Amino acid sequence: MQINKINQTIPKKLTKVSNNQKDTNRSTSFKGGLDSFCLGVADAIENGGLFVSFTLQDMLGTNLPRPFMGLMRNKKENKGKKNLKFAAKEMVREFTTGPSMFAIPAALLFTGKKIFGKATEIPMKLIKSFGDIHVNALENAGRAVSKQEFFQNAFTEILKNSKGEQQASSGTIEMAADFAKRLLEGASVGKKTLKSTITDMSDDFINAVKGSVQDVAHTDFTRAVISNNTSASFKDTANFLVSYADDVVKKSANKSSSEVVNYVKKLSTNKVIGRLAAIAIMYGAVMTFLQVIPKLYNKAEGKGNAGLKGLMKEETLNDKSLEENKKADKSKPSFGSAASFANKLTGNGLLAKIGSGIEFQGCNVSFPLLLGIMGFGILFPRIRQAKDKYDREEIIRRDVTTCATMCFAEKALRKGFSKFNENKSGLVLASKQTGFKDQSIFKRFFDYIRPIKGVNVLSSEQIVSKYSGIEKYKDGIKGFCEFIEGQGGKLSKVFSLTDESKNIVQGLLSKEGKDIATADNSVIKNVLEKAKDSDELKRLTDLFKEKDNPWVTKAKTLNARFTALSVIVLVPLFLGFLLPWINEKSTKKRIKEEQANMRSSETAKLIDASYFNQSQKAKEIFADMQNFAK
Asked: Cβ(302)–Cβ(386) under 8 Å?
């Protein structure tokens, strides 16, 4: 799963359509302000990564509604009084958990970069790949290289790999030199200029890859291939190149030619190990603080379980006999050379997969790391420090459901919603791996419900790369058609999105006696191939030229709608209101059942005692009668 940097600039909303297009594309209808809002939410989540997504869901779904629901807890049973203690517990728990998961790593990373260098923020595999490129440049030059020379070597390798070239072509070398110059100039001016420069470079990179790769249907044009086993988004790669250059390249600039290669090798190894140490510290700090949170919210709640207020007598609430005996578990889980270890961390083996799975990027966490934090940092300490059996049941019901929703359900629903919109619109809204259609129905279903890998909903940047500038595809519009067909889209629906495109394609099909409504993908592809270099085809291609064309806007809007709907509406309703209500009702039901069972048991005892007493009285009367007879 690709996680974007939090400090990336949110791109401009690609929702405007030119005046000419407004006149000719009246069949493209959107919901105006509402869809613009959805696009804004989706873009913020995309650029902010897990941090923004989790924070929005956490704030709207738990932080704000749950204290309110806590305030209303057992209001009827408590004579209309508000449950201030339970609300305080909910507020402390929710407002300390989510923010700490991201604020602590962000603060530590900022400090680490200041103390140990900017390479601290670079993922381990990228440090290794940049180090290899750097060493190769040093060996070829026979001396220390400048930042610009390092950038040029790096971009040459990246462009060559991303375009699928065996050897770097003259065009690749020329583009790499241009990229190196632009990146150096942008970095020297300031962060704002650097971001703008990298965005422009990314557009050029996308066009270069789009026009070179063979498999246009399954290639992510926004992703840079740095080495055989390492890739990242181009924007992230460019930013990390600057960080590496400011750290490692700068430090090696004054080394003699005889020692610079070994110095860089050793320094790169140390940076990989330092990065691992930083991850461990960040993870350890988050986990340590999360263990303390149950103590904080239990203290805010005070003695007893405020969730039972109004359901039991006050003295019963504070009775320690309610708490089950807990066995003190004092046991804690236990969790060659530096160069060899660094190579294992950045290679293809199990250790490298584990290393990649636990990496922070900025203040964002990877999905495996998020699962670890939720399991061992949230669920385990809360269950262990539950006040009583009722509190423990509510924790399990509430927090397991919350974690499952945020980690699994929301992503699966988003993929399903994307699939529904694909069938309806004909547009490709998610990427599937090669051979997806040939898989069994069970494997395809699994790819839709798994949180990472499998089917992945296209990001805004990926949509722009696929649906704009289609003349840049290898073989032009034919390449675009191969993308739509290869990912399961419908060309007839795609070209019917606007009146002008529909009329152009229908006109070409009419020459073959075909109709766009019934023509399948192969028929439309063949007709467009025959019309190659015609004025009609040029007019059709020009409709896709701009980055804010109707197809881009439509695809982004369809994907953004469910993202905004889930974050703004579904998650708050389910996690913030419905789940606390279910907890309250379930606890009330259990207590009523227990009290009913207790009353039944006491009544039985009274009946037994009454029968015993009556039997004794009968025996006494019988004895008196015998005595009287005598």
From this structure: no
User: Cα–Cα distance between 208 and 211 in angstroms, integer?
Assistant: 5
Length of the chain: 630
Query: Tokens standing for 161?
Result: 């790999």
Residue 7 contacts by C-beta under 8 Å, 6 or more apart in sequence?
Answer: 362
Instruction: Please state whether beta strands 230-233 and 223-227 pair in parallel, antiparallel, or not at all (unpaired).
Output: antiparallel
CB 542 within 8 A of CB 498: no
The pLDDT of residue 497 is 95
Is 324 in a helix, a strand, or coil?
Answer: coil
**Nearest-CA neighbor of 49 among 355, 283, 362?**
362
Between these two residues, 165 and 59, which has the higher pLDDT value? 165
Four-CA torsion 547, 553, 554, 555, nearest 10 degrees? 60
- Would you call 312 helix, strand, or coil by DSSP? strand
259: buried, middle or exposed (CB in 10 Å: 19+, 13-18, 0-12)? Answer: exposed
Whole-number pLDDT of residue 402? 87
Confidence check: pLDDT of 439 > 60 = yes
- C-alpha span between 547 and 163 (Å, rounded): 22
Token pair, residue 605, equals 């005892």
Domain ranges for the chain: 64-123+259-310+336-387, 145-254
So what's the pLDDT on residue 375? Answer: 87
pLDDT at 248: 92
pTM of the predicted model over 0.85 = no
Judged by DSSP in three states, 54 sits in helix
- How many C-alpha atoms does 115 have within 13 Å on its Cβ side? 9
Note the pLDDT tens digit of each residue in 5-25: 333 333 333 333 343 444 334
Query: Which pLDDT score, from 0 to 100, does residue 28 have?
Result: 42
